[in-house]
Design goal:
Elements lengths: L1 H10 L17 H14 L5 H4 L7 H6 L1 H19 L1 H11 L7 H12 L8 H6 L1 H20 L8 H31 L8 H12 L8 H6 L1 H22 L7 H31 L4 H6 L10 H9 L6 H11 L9 H6 L1 H18 L6
């Protein structure tokens, strides 16, 4: 598998994505490379972000403190890429809460008219702010799960064990920082002047809706990890075995590996996206959230107001089952995929920006990239 190793080495931005020699995954080069590609793609999809497998570090890196430099570089790269693609992310959230089909251009025009260019970055600050605690908790949880799985054995973990450990670590980190996810959604959907800061938003939401409101959508968020992990891994295994059964000695090309990794991650995302949409709608709803948004009738165009109004006023105490039923009954199956277009559009620029920023940040922090 010299070709695979060469491709990984030439494309390597470091720990964040393509560092094969540090990604201690058992199996051949095909397995390792597809896993790395899927991991990179999943960082910038919706629910896939929660499943993102943390990095494996060598004993030497743990002792010398090189591990925190990798994490810091990854955090900076994530912050820059999220900031650059924030307008697409807010557009996705805005489309997700629409109860009727809206064109992307119309939604973008409305956001610019309501709040100007700066409004396209609403909710981005807290989205960046949660990177540090989420990464730290996920890394710590991943290390603990690895110890539980391997015990005293120093063997390398299999791909299945890595995905189980990654899913568990993602669940722990998401549970800890989930209130920030809710705040991000509320801030992204807020009207001009509704909240003055993150603390003001948290305070008002707590006073109006109570502590439970910060965990609205938590169940579909956690459930979304399961189909994403299962489908992604199943498609990956099927494609890998299918290819190797017909080409036992032939080395796979880079484009074939890229297609396999992209196909498995994309299919997993498509299957789990309805849960992400339901999660967002639950995060946006609240007992008094409808009253807070009734005031926007004077500034929202007639085309958008009925759509938003039906969403916020449709249920006093919404839950996952009710939201699913209401979407199917009023919007049809297509309603479960609102906002998926900008979600996919943002992947390429996010990955590219993160790749470049990580490489330069790693060099600045003294991380050996060879």
């Amino acid at each position: 598998m010299q070709l695979v190793g060469a491709v990984v080495e030439n494309c390597d931005p470091g720990k964040m994505a393509f560092e094969q020699n540090k990604l201690q995954v058992s199996g051949d080069g095909v397995e390792d490379f597809i896993l790395v590609l899927k991991e990179l793609l999943s960082r910038y999809l919706d629910i896939g972000e929660d499943l993102n497998v943390p990095d494996d570090f060598t004993q030497s890196e743990m002792q010398t403190g090189m591990w925190w430099r990798h994490l810091a570089a990854g955090g900076i790269a994530g912050a820059v890429s999220r900031t650059c693609t924030a307008p697409l992310d807010r557009l996705k959230v805005f489309l997700q809460v629409q109860a009727s089909k809206q064109r992307i251009s119309d939604c973008l025009q409305y956001m610019l008219k309501e709040g100007g260019v700066r409004s396209l970055w609403r909710g981005n600050f807290i989205n960046v702010l949660k990177i540090a605690p989420e990464s730290a908790i996920k890394f710590a949880a991943y290390e603990q799960v690895k110890r539980l799985i391997r015990g005293n054995d120093k063997r390398q973990m299999t791909i299945y064990e890595r995905f189980v450990a990654g899913a568990c670590a993602g669940g722990v980190s998401q549970t800890a920082i989930y209130p920030m996810e809710v705040l991000k959604t509320r801030l992204a959907l807020r009207k001009t002047g509704e909240y003055t800061s993150i603390l003001d938003a948290a305070s008002k939401i707590y006073r109006r809706e109570g502590l439970r409101s910060f965990y609205r959508g938590y169940i579909p968020n956690m459930l979304g990890i399961i189909p994403y992990a299962g489908i992604d891994l199943a498609v990956y295994e099927t494609l890998k075995k299918k290819y190797l059964s017909h080409h036992e000695t032939e080395q796979p090309s880079f484009w074939l590996l890229l297609a396999c990794g992209s196909a498995s991650s994309t299919l997993g995302q498509v299957c789990s996206y309805p849960l992400a949409l339901v999660r967002t709608r639950l995060q946006a709803q609240g007992k008094t959230f409808a009253r807070a948004h009734l005031k926007i009738q004077t500034i929202i165009t007639p085309k958008f107001f009925p759509s938003l109004l039906s969403l916020f006023c449709s249920a006093v105490e919404p839950n996952m089952t009710n939201v699913f039923k209401r979407i199917i009954q009023t919007e049809g199956p297509v309603g479960l995929y609102r906002g998926i277009t900008p979600n996919f559009i943002k992947v390429l620029p996010a990955v590219s920006i993160s790749y470049v920023v990580y490489e330069y940040t790693s060099r600045a922090l003294g991380v050996n990239m060879t």
